[in-house]
């Protein structure tokens, strides 16, 4: 079941929530809509679901024009951040809800509900009420309820947003396995880049109602289309005045800012061929890696990430001088800086 969005725009009053969106979701893929708050992710998802009508453009689901199709005829399952389970119904009754209102035979409903309880690993919880479940369990029930009516498309709006980090991680791995098992086409909204990277086949990076880039997690991370994407999908050092800081042979001269990921700095105690001297200002233990805050000539502070092993080997002390050598530097053409500059205050 494929989804195609062509030239879809949507305004709320004077506010352009979606601006000429083009997107194709291939059958069987799990796609993440990633972007800062207010970038239009939910509006796009709701438009595909039929909860919003686009002002212009077209939406096709499985090659059928669905732009103005009634929501009930789209064969879509929807899961929201705030598990909208019916409080007065048990887990079993919640899962059965969509089948009940479609007046499916009792025997089939019973069988389907048991299958889904097994799928979400909540056998034995069928007679509980939502208030007797944890947040993660409730969200799994919400998923089972959406899956009960056998949708071909599953849309999830920040499904794990309200859960703590550990449960969130478990559930996202589980969602990935479930997606592969059930052979759905799924689209989910998140503002968490790690979640998008960990789960999705493709990531759609959104900003101010537009799509900045569509690509696999590796593509958007390693070959970002513009400064906005580079900054949004991972940490980055932006060296604005490359002429002043780097022009002494450290890097090829350029008037464009240099974008360097913290783990793309090689750190050494002694100068190497093209290294930059820097003073070590702060050391932070991030768990499996160490973050260094370093001051470059010209008083520019950058961060570098080191493995624990390398950190131990260097035997670093605060205030000492080290030498940085960028392994990889990205630069973007002038016109690609627009999105970054306008969204700058949201991501730095
Ligand atoms: N029904 C509405 N009426 C007016 N403005 C709306 C409506 N729905 C959304 N908006 C506005 O459209 C913009 C995009 O909202 P949307 O919910 O799509 O963003 P989002 O990327 O999902 O953000 P978040 O991560 O915060 O949920 C926001 O500025 C929001 O205030």
SSE order, one letter for each helix or strand: EEEHEEEHHHEHEHEEHHEHEEEEEHEH
Q: What is the count of DSSP helices, taking H or I runs of 4+ residues?
A: 11
Hetero groups in this structure are: adenosine-5'-triphosphate
Q: Rg, please?
A: 24 Å
> CATH class of the largest domain, please?
Alpha Beta
Q: Tell me how many strands there are.
A: 17
> Which range does the strand content fall in?
25-35%
CATH topology of the largest domain: Rossmann fold
Task: Give the structural class.
Answer: alpha+beta
For the record, the count of structural domains works out to: 2
Mean pLDDT: 87
| First-to-last CA distance | 38 Å
Helix content: 25-40%
Low-confidence stretches: 342-348
Largest sheet: 6 strands, mixed
CATH superfamily of the largest domain: P-loop containing nucleotide triphosphate hydrolases
CATH architecture of the largest domain: 3-Layer(aba) Sandwich
Neighbour order of strands in the largest sheet: 6-7-8-3-9-10
Morphology call: globular
Enzyme class: translocase
Subcellular location: Cell inner membrane
Main location: membrane
EC number: 7.6.2.9
What is the compact description of this entry?
This protein has helices at 41-49, 91-101, 106-119, 135-148, 165-182, 193-199, 217-222, 227-233, 242-246, 308-314, 338-347; strands spanning 3-12, 15-25, 30-34, 56-61, 64-65, 76-79, 153-157, 185-190, 202-207, 210-215, 237-239, 258-260, 265-268, 276-285, 289-296, 300-307, 321-326. The chain has two domains: 3-226, P-loop containing nucleotide triphosphate hydrolases (Rossmann fold, 3-Layer(aba) Sandwich); 237-344, OB fold (Dihydrolipoamide Acetyltransferase, E2P) (Beta Barrel).
């Amino acid at each position: 079941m494929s989804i195609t969005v062509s030239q879809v725009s949507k305004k709320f009053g004077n506010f352009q929530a979606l601006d000429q969106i083009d997107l194709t979701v291939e059958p069987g893929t799990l796609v993440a809509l990633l972007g800062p708050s207010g970038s239009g992710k939910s509006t796009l998802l709701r438009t595909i679901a039929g909860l919003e009508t686009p002002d212009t453009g077209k939406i096709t689901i499985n090659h059928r024009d669905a732009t103005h199709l009634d929501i009930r005829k789209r064969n879509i399952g929807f899961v929201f951040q705030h598990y909208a389970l019916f409080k007065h119904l048990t887990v079993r009754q919640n899962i059965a809800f969509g089948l009940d209102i479609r007046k499916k035979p009792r025997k089939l409903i019973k069988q389907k509900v048991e299958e889904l309880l097994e799928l979400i690993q909540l056998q034995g919880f069928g007679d509980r009420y939502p208030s007797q479940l944890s947040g993660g369990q409730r969200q799994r029930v919400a998923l089972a309820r959406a899956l009960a009516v056998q949708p071909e498309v599953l849309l999830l709006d920040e499904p794990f947003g309200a859960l703590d980090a550990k449960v969130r991680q478990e559930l996202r791995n589980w969602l990935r396995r479930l997606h592969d098992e059930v052979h759905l086409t799924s689209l989910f909204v998140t503002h968490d880049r790690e979640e998008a990277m960990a789960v999705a086949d493709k990531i759609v990076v959104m900003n101010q109602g537009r799509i900045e880039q569509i690509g696999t997690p590796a593509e958007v991370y390693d070959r970002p289309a513009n400064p906005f994407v580079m900054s949004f999908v991972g940490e980055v050092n932006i060296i604005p005045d490359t002429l002043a800081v780097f022009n002494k042979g450290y890097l090829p001269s350029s008037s464009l800012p240099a974008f360097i990921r913290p783990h793309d700095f090689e750190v050494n105690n002694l100068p190497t061929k093209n290294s930059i001297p820097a003073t070590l200002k702060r050391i932070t233990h991030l768990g499996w890696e160490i973050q260094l805050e370093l001051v470059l000539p010209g008083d520019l502070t950058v961060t570098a990430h080191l493995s624990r092993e390398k950190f131990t080997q260097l035997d670093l002390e605060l205030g000492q001088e080290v030498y940085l050598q960028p392994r990889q530097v990205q630069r973007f053409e002038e016109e690609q800086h627009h999105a970054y500059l306008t969204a700058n205050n949201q991501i730095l």
